[in-house]
Write a structure and sequence with these properties.
By secondary structure, the protein is α/β, with parallel strands linked by helices. The protein has one domain: TIM Barrel. It has ten helices and eight strands. The protein has an eight-stranded parallel sheet. Helix 1 packs parallel to helix 10. The radius of gyration is 16 Å and the shape is globular. It starts with a strand and ends with a helix. The structure holds SN-glycerol-3-phosphate.
Length: 221
Amino acid sequence: MTKPLIVVNFKTYASASGEAAQLLLEAMEAQSEGPATFVAVASAFDLAPLSQASTHVEVWSQHLDPVGLGGFTGWLEPTTALARGAVGSIINHAEHKVSLEHVEQLLSMLPEGFPVCACAADVHEARALAALNPTYIAVEPPELIGGDISVTTADPSIVSDTVAAVKAVNPKVRVLCGAGVKNGRDVAKALELGAEGVLLASGVTKAKDVDSVLADLVALL
Ligand code: G3P
C-alpha cells in the first residue's frame, strides 16, 4: 500500500532557506521511516544542497517553466532542476499561478514518471488540470493558505468534491489537499475525505518545535 504523502513547501520562509532548510530536511529525515512519505519542496537556490543531503525525503522544486536551455533569463528550466537533484515539482501554486498551457507544455517536457503536483484553487480548476494528467492535484482554497484553520475543517466538501471530480476525469491522478493544515488530526481528516496526502507550509516552517509538529503530523496514521 502506498504511504500517505506529506508535502512540506519551504516557500521563501527564512526558517526554511539555506542552512535552516538543511536543518528542516534533517528533521523530516528523522520521520521518514514512519507511516508517511515526506517531500521537501525547496527553493531553487537550495535544490542542490538539499538533494545531496537527503536520503529518504524527496526533494522537489516549487515551480518549473516549460523552457529549454538558452535565452530564458530568470526562468526555472526543467533539465537544470533535474540535474540539481529535483525528483518532482509543484506547478500552479496559488502564489505562482500559470496557464493551463504552461502546465501542459511542462508535463510534455518532463521524463516519464517524474511526479508533478498541480495546485488547484477549487473543484473547477482541479477538473481542468486532471485532464492534463499530472501525478497529483493539490486543492488549496487560497483564502485559507497561511491561516490557522485547516481546509479539512473549514471546507471539507472541497476536498471530497475534488477527489470525486478528479477521479471522474482521470482516475490515475492522486489528490492532495492543503491550506492551514497543522496537525495529525488534519492529516487524518484529509485521508478520511479521500485525499492521499497533504500539502502544507507554515504549520512546519513557522513551528517553534519542528520535531514535535512533524511527529504529530504522522501520529494518527
Ligand atoms: O503549499 C502549501 C501552502 O500553500 C499551504 O500553506 O501555510 O497554509 O500550510 P499553509
